[in-house]
Amino acid sequence: AADRPTVVETYNLRKVYRTGFWLNQKVVSLHDCTLSIYQGETFGLLGPNGAGKTTLLKLLLGIVRPSKGRGLLLGAPLGDRAVKQRIGYLPESPYFYDYLTGWEILQFTAGLFQIPRSIQRKRIPELLDRVGLAQSAARRKPLRQYSKGMLQRIGMAQALINDPDLVFLDEPMSGLDPLGRYQIREIILSLKAQGKTVFFNSHILSDVEMICDRVAILAQGDLLCAGSLQELLGGTDAYQVKVKGGNPDTLRNRLDGLEFQDGYWQGHLLGSPQDFLASLNLMGAQLVSMQLARPSLEDFFVQQLTQRGIQESR
């Protein structure tokens, strides 16, 4: 990724809030955060509630100002107005004028970006179709009659109305049922296919593992680690295999640490998966499962928090 241009860069970004009756107490929401995100990648920011994920997002978007440090977005300093034309944003709990219809809210957002009516007439139906709201009932219904999933999808459509280069999504799968999560996931994958850069916060780790090129873990305002899944979880060439039947002497040549458990032979694969699958019949064995012998992102995430004595509160 490092050979691609960076679209998001932060250098020792820090945010301190003042609280209390006299604003005499300081709460550090984000410690010195240094991060790079590359063009065309899908980047997932993980962390428990209160980790500072939304604070970092608001700093990047120029909604709040950093107490210390600096950052660049698409080559311009944080808060640069011209850059906002090239950014899409879906907040965690989007608020819309609920008397407007789905079509009208997209028309309103397009107006903020000064998108010509001729382009709006083409883009709005395309976006409604893309987020699964193209049917006439949904597009003509006022937003107050939308379900949580429908609001999330119209929120995604408004984030894409200006055909942005960089899209920020704050907990895009929050509160959605499995079908809604699948639809949002497919939209993110389609953005990736178009070469867009997607930055999103989430604590639904299975979704992150499926769609992200790189991830970072934030906890109590500290950036604990950042990297690709392969860098963080280990290599992708180690497989754990389980087979039924077969000669143990023959299997031992193919599977390291061979063990017999619950009626199955299992061990770590030696050599390529393709060679092993091709020789299964000759060994008189039947494949039951073959999976990467590395921890899941969830296991890694919990381990990182536990090592630092941080309680996860999802």
Give a structural overview.
The protein has 314 residues and is of the alpha/beta class. The protein folds into two domains: 6-233, Rossmann fold (3-Layer(aba) Sandwich), CATH 3.40.50.300; 239-292, no CATH class. It is built from twelve helices and 14 strands. Strands 6-7-8-3-9-10 form a six-stranded mixed β-sheet, sandwiched between helices. β1 (6-19) and β2 form a beta hairpin. The radius of gyration is 24 Å and the shape is globular. The two termini are 31 Å apart.
Give me the secondary-structure topology:
Elements: E1 6-19, E2 25-38, E3 42-46, H1 53-61, E4 68-73, E5 76-77, E6 87-90, H2 102-112, H3 117-130, H4 136-140, H5 148-159, E7 166-170, H6 178-193, E8 197-202, H7 205-211, E9 214-219, E10 222-228, H8 229-233, E11 239-245, H9 248-252, E12 255-261, E13 264-269, H10 273-278, H11 280-283, E14 285-292, H12 297-307
Parallel strand pairs: 3-8, 3-9, 6-7, 7-8
Antiparallel strand pairs: 1-2, 1-4, 4-5, 9-10, 11-13, 11-14, 12-13
Helix pairs in contact: 2-3
